[in-house]
Amino acid sequence: MTVSVNAFFHNQTGTASYVVVDSTQKKAVVIDSVLDLDIGSGSVSSVLADEQLEFIKTNNLELVWILETHAHADHLTAAHYLKEKTQAPIVIGEGILQVQKHFNSLFPKHSALSENESGFDHLVKDQEVLTFGDSEIKVLSTPGHTDDSVSYLVDSNLFVGDTLFMPDGGTARCDFPGGNAEKLWKSIEKIHSLDDNTRIWVCHDYQPDGRDVKIQTTVAQSKTQNIHINQDTQKESYISMRNKRDESLAAPKLIYPSLQVNLWGGLLPELQSNGKRYLSIPLTEKYGDNS
Three-state SS for 44? Predict the structure, then answer.
């Protein structure tokens, strides 16, 4: 096999990031990278990303692409950091332009970007094919969780981002701006139509019932065992369940820090006059009525 999948798990956020290697040409891609953020101290570091860079260096690999499955709301991407270290371009689905519009009122365009810059180097379309070494990456548009969600098919490995979790974890939420349960249903149908032996690699595992971390399943297992959507699930019942469930979910703890960075390809906020960078949290005022 010319393609190998090397997983790096970020315990703080339950995120799985991958270095996928084409061994014949010694080329690699990173999928869904992670920066470390200690929100209490405001400390940002690159521990996991540096582990991946060391893996790439030790194995004499060239990083060809930095792939994002979508603009995550639960961890900071290390995409820009990896680009600075390797000059590899950052890739995301073309729907990111719509996602940026959704959040424009909260987080205006990063001041370092010109009018025509998105913060990403290449915006991919459905069915587009990227190459690295002798291997190909087929892009599948899989919106529903977000407008920009894509999955990457490499050989018989599918990297689905947040669209699907492990079978006992269910499916992605759809209550972010642009999210849509019917779109997610269609996207998962697309995934479940692939060969049963296709290996699904998830971006997050929150270890339901305290089990050990699991990040890889198959199409066959997903479409027979997924607790939210499987071959016996009816479309309308799924949409109803997903919408009702989403109403009860709290916002991700890192949603505001993550979006300020991830919407722009991992660019941190600009330095202020005091030499510091700041992440903002928009406040919603809900005072009690004491009249």
Answer: strand
Helix/strand/coil percent split, the chain, to 5: 25, 25, 50
Closest by alpha carbon to 69, among 143, 5, 7?
A: 143
pLDDT at 44 over 70: yes
Which conformational region is residue 180 in: left (phi greater than 0), alpha (psi within -120 to 50 degrees), or beta?
Answer: beta
Q: pLDDT tens across 48-72, in order?
A: 999 999 999 999 999 999 999 999 9
The SS3 of residue 50 is helix
Nearest by Cα to 27 from 110, 102, 134, 129: 134
CB atoms within 10 A of CB 274: 6
- In this prediction, residues 216-221 reach a mean pLDDT of 98
Q: Sort residue 29 into left (φ over 0), alpha (ψ -120 to 50) or beta.
A: beta
CA dihedral 234, 167, 218, 32 (to 10 degrees): 110
| Whether 244 contacts 58, CB under 8 Å | no
Amino acid (1-letter code) at residue 131: T
Task: Output the CA torsion 41→42→48→49 (10° steps).
Answer: -160
pLDDT-above-90 percentage for the chain? 94
C-beta atoms surrounding 73 within 10 Å? 21
Whether residue 152 contacts residue 143, with contact meaning beta carbons closer than 8 Å, is answered with no
Q: What's the whole-model pTM score?
A: 0.96
